Automatic annotation (TrEMBL):
Pathway: Amino-acid biosynthesis. InterPro entries: DPD_II (IPR028261), FAD/NAD-bd_sf (IPR036188), FAD/NAD-binding_dom (IPR023753), Glut_synth_ssu1 (IPR006005), Glutamate_Synthase (IPR051394), Helical_ferredxn (IPR009051). Residues 23-124 form the Dihydroprymidine dehydrogenase domain. GO terms for molecular function: iron-sulfur cluster binding; metal ion binding; oxidoreductase activity, acting on the CH-NH2 group of donors, NAD or NADP as acceptor. It comes from freshwater metagenome. This is Unannotated protein.
Length: 484
């Protein structure tokens, strides 16, 4: 194990974030560098408990006590090997995952849990810095071909696993660049895109082929795709956003979060100087209190918004773990993201009743009302209506499943009662040779689940093509996260 008394003698400490007045002037990641010595002390807090609940907290089944111990001892090469054994992209999860492993940490029963997420991130960053992340091309080529539709974390994980198994894999992406929501939905201040690009470079050297700018179902039909490839993996995500059909929705200035965030990323990367949706000097209201809402918040701040307010229909969570969500479950507690450190104008227990226009088709304000939960639904509190000035309103209320695109119709795959692409216990859709991974089959979820699903679907596809597979399958498709 790591330091036998580390969890008793060393308090939890995460890297500091750059000062707010500094970081809001740029788009760079918010954290300051952390010394390797400091990181090793944090890794030494892992107690190598008899039953490591962090394993069950992580959908990937990461071997957390093992690489904690290895990093504490300074064996960086072995540590990254153990980390990569279960996770294709720890540099993504180390930045973007909400760390259900930490809420399941045994140390966290009595004191603050181990900084698992930070050890993971630093392990892979040390490996990249030392040149220990190298291409792993297959020893042999099977002659089988696989098309992966969608280049988010699920699609990329499936593609890398199948490429390493020796199959010829082509990843199709309708956007102009590969990466899906990793590129277009995650702001630069949470993950700089060079982090994505260096991993894609590794995958290309391994043999994975990328085809961006191709809309499957339009540019290439589903029938043509089936003729060309031995198997297909649908990793198209759950991009059908939830809308708010209330009076005034047609006013200019009301946008979905995913109509706004890609332009912010292009601005951050210098690809565009004045994005079509630019909130500089304007009053912004964000509907939705989750991570996507926080991403809109941080992006609005960096664009120079005059004010930003975030609305949430749920009551303000408690700061302590609720009794109904005991350890080791993932608790719904009050959290402060880096964006909330910069501006925190959150209003809880409210809903929007109307988008008020100025008479010329432009948004002027939102009519909001306080809510209470009664009789199984949220109900407005009479007499609490008020107007909230707004030039822009961004809807960050989540997603309802995959888009009902031409591809879905052409492939004739069935949908389940939640609108997701239906699949069996081997990740296969209702059509033979067509498999489903990630949010497209699971519904909106976490990046760590997407990677786990991509790995599991790859194992199923490999077994379908070869009769058996040695690729790991960390989860079953019917396993759903009800708490994270």
């Amino acid at each position: 194990m790591a330091d036998p008394r580390g969890f008793l003698t060393t308090p939890r400490e995460v890297p500091k974030r750059r000062p707010v007045d500094v970081r809001i002037r740029d788009w760079n990641e918010v954290y300051e560098p952390q010394s390797i010595e400091h990181l090793q002390k944090q890794a030494g807090r892992c107690m190598d408990c008899g039953i490591p609940f962090c394993h069950s907290g992580c959908p990937l089944g990461n071997l957390i006590p093992e690489w904690n111990d290895l990093m504490w001892r300074g064996d960086k090469k072995e540590a990254i090997d153990r980390l990569h054994a279960t996770n294709n992209f720890p540099e993504f999860t180390g930045r973007l995952c909400p760390a259900p492993c930490e809420t399941a940490c045994v140390v966290g029963i009595n004191v603050d849990p181990v900084t698992i997420k930070q050890v993971e991130l630093r392990t892979v960053e040390e490996a990249f810095g030392n040149g220990d992340v190298i291409p792993l091309p297959p020893d042999r080529i099977t002659g089988k071909t696989v098309a992966v539709i969608g280049s988010g974390p699920a699609g990329l994980a499936a593609a890398q696993q199948l490429t390493r198994a020796g199959h010829t894999v082509v990843v199709y992406e309708r956007a102009e660049k590969i990466g899906g929501l990793l590129r277009y939905g995650i702001p630069e201040f949470k993950m700089e895109k060079n982090i994505l690009d260096r991993r894609l470079a590794q995958m290309e050297k391994e043999g994975t082929r990328f085809r961006p700018g191709i809309n499957i179902g339009v540019d290439i039909t589903g029938a043509d795709l089936r003729k060309k490839y031995d198997a297909i993996v649908l990793a198209v995500g759950a991009t059908q956003w939830r809308d708010l059909a209330i009076k005034g929705r047609e006013n200019k200035g009301v946008y979905q979060a995913m109509e706004f965030l890609p332009w912010g990323n292009k601005q951050a990367l210098g690809e565009i100087e004045n994005p079509p949706i630019n909130v500089a000097g304007k009053h912004v209201v964000i509907l939705g209190g989750g991570d996507t809402g926080a991403d809109c918040l941080g992006t609005s701040i960096r664009q120079g918004a005059a004010s930003v307010t975030q609305l949430e229909i749920m009551p303000r969570p408690t700061e302590e773990r609720p009794s109904a969500q005991p350890w080791p479950t993932y608790p719904m507690i009050f959290r402060v993201s880096s964006a909330h450190e910069e501006v925190d104008n959150r209003i809880f227990s409210v809903s929007t009743e109307e988008f008020i226009g100025d008479g010329n088709g432009n948004l002027k304000a939102l009519k909001i009302v306080e809510t209470k939960f009664a009789d199984g639904k949220f109900q407005p509190v009479p007499g609490t209506e008020r107007e909230l000035p707004a030039d822009f309103a961004f809807l960050a209320m989540g997603f309802t499943g995959p888009e009902k695109s031409a591809l879905i119709d052409q492939l004739e795959v069935a949908l389940d009662d939640r609108g997701n692409i239906k699949r069996d216990d081997k990740f296969q859709s209702s059509e033979e040779s067509i498999y489903v991974a990630g949010d497209a089959g699971r519904g909106q979820s976490l990046i760590v689940w997407a990677i786990a699903e991509g790995r599991s679907a790859a194992s199923a596809v490999d077994a379908y093509l070869e009769g058996e597979s040695q690729l790991p399958s960390p989860i079953e498709p019917t396993t759903r996260s009800l708490t994270v």
